[in-house]
Amino acid sequence: MLKIGHRGAKGHAPENTLASFEKALQLHVHAVELDVHLSADATIMVIHDETVDRTTNGNGFVRDLHSEELRQLGIPTLEDVFQLIDKKCSINIEIKDKNATHLVVQLIEKYVEDNYQLFQISSFDWEVLESLSRLNPKIFIGVLTENDLEAALIFAKKIRAQSINPFYRLLTKEKVTLLHENGFLVFPWTVNEPNEIEKLKLFAVDGIISDFPDRI
Known about the structure:
Layout: E1 2-6, H1 18-26, E2 31-38, E3 44-46, H2 67-72, H3 78-85, E4 90-95, H4 101-111, E5 119-123, H5 126-135, E6 140-145, H6 149-159, E7 163-166, H7 173-181, E8 185-186, H8 194-202, E9 207-210
Parallel strand pairs: 1-2, 1-9, 2-4, 4-5, 5-6, 6-7, 7-8
Antiparallel strand pairs: 2-3
C-alpha cells in the first residue's frame, strides 16, 4: 500500500513548500500530492488556493502575480519540485487551473524518460481529465470525487483512468472491492486519524493520502 504525502507532509511543514516535500522524502513516502495554478507569466506554481493570502504573508490572486514574486513568497514552481524530488518518489499533480493542463503535460513529457508511473494527474474538474486523456493517454489519471463515487466510476471507465481518488468517508470495503473489480486503484484522501487509517487498510485500498504519511 502506497504512503502518499498530502501537499508534501502538510502535518509537519508548511503545505506545498519545498520544505514540506523534503520532509515527505525524509518520511520515505512512495508519492507526494500537490496542487498547481498558473502565474501571470504562465509558470506552473505549486499552491492549493487561487490566492496567496492563506499560506503566505502576501496577498492577491496567483494568476495576477509573476512567478518570481510568488517564489519570493515561498511558493515553488512545479519544475522546482520535480528537481527536488528527482525521481525519488512519484508525484500526484492536482490541477486547479484548467489553463495549466497542457503546460503540465509538457513538463511531464520533459522529465518522464518513458517511466510514466512516476507521475499522475488528478482533478475535481473532470473536463481537465477528459482533455488530458486526449493530450497524452500515457499519463496516469486519477479521478477525484468528494461526493459521488458511482459517477466517478462511470467517468473513470470513459476516460480509461488508472485510479479513483475519493474522499475517504465515501468508502466501504464493498465499494473498494467494486472499484478493484472494475480495474481501478483506490487512493482516498485526506486521512489523518490512526483509527481511520487502520480501517482503510482493512478495506484494502491501494494507497492513502495523508498530512501525516508517517502514520501510514
